């Protein structure tokens, strides 16, 4: 299995890392809140709410990343090392994005998000 494919697996679990930070970082999550976790997450504020927002964004972007990796692999025009480097860059951008979101660095977060989207586009460019 390639590094790029392992990065897809890693990307699939990043939202759950954010969820854990949101739930347990709030200091309020317990068995009662687990009966309706979506309502609980919607009620959060501050740091925990930003973790929840990072979770939602991670769920949104992961399918595009997975598709880009799979398409690049199927097309086969890009060297595997190029695909692997791009995948690691994407994961790095996502980790930085989450850090920026949690730290409430809005402008930097947006720039890192744009970088990640650029990496997804780069998979298509190098595969053309």
TrEMBL record:
GO cellular component terms, A-Z: membrane
Cellular compartment(s): Membrane
Keywords assigned by UniProt, alphabetized: Membrane, Transmembrane, Transmembrane helix
Family annotation (SUPFAM superfamilies): MAPEG domain-like
Family matches, as Pfam families: MAPEG
Transmembrane segments: 110-127
Classification via PANTHER family: BLR7753 PROTEIN (PTHR35371:SF1), INNER MEMBRANE PROTEIN (PTHR35371)
Protein's UniProt name: MAPEG family protein
Species, as recorded: Pseudomonas laurentiana
């Amino acid at each position: 299995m390639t590094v790029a494919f392992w990065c897809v697996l890693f990307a699939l679990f990043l939202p759950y890392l954010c969820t854990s930070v949101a739930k347990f970082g709030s200091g309020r999550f317990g068995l009662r809140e687990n009966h309706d976790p979506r309502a609980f997450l919607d009620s959060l504020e501050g740091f925990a709410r930003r973790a929840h927002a990072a979770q939602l964004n991670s769920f949104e972007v992961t399918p595009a990343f997975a598709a880009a990796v799979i398409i690049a692999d199927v097309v086969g025009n890009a060297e595997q090392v190029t695909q692997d480097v791009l995948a690691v860059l994407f994961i790095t951008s996502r980790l930085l994005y989450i850090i920026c979101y949690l730290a409430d660095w809005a402008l930097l977060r947006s720039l890192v998000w744009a970088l990640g989207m650029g990496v997804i586009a780069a998979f298509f460019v190098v595969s053309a």
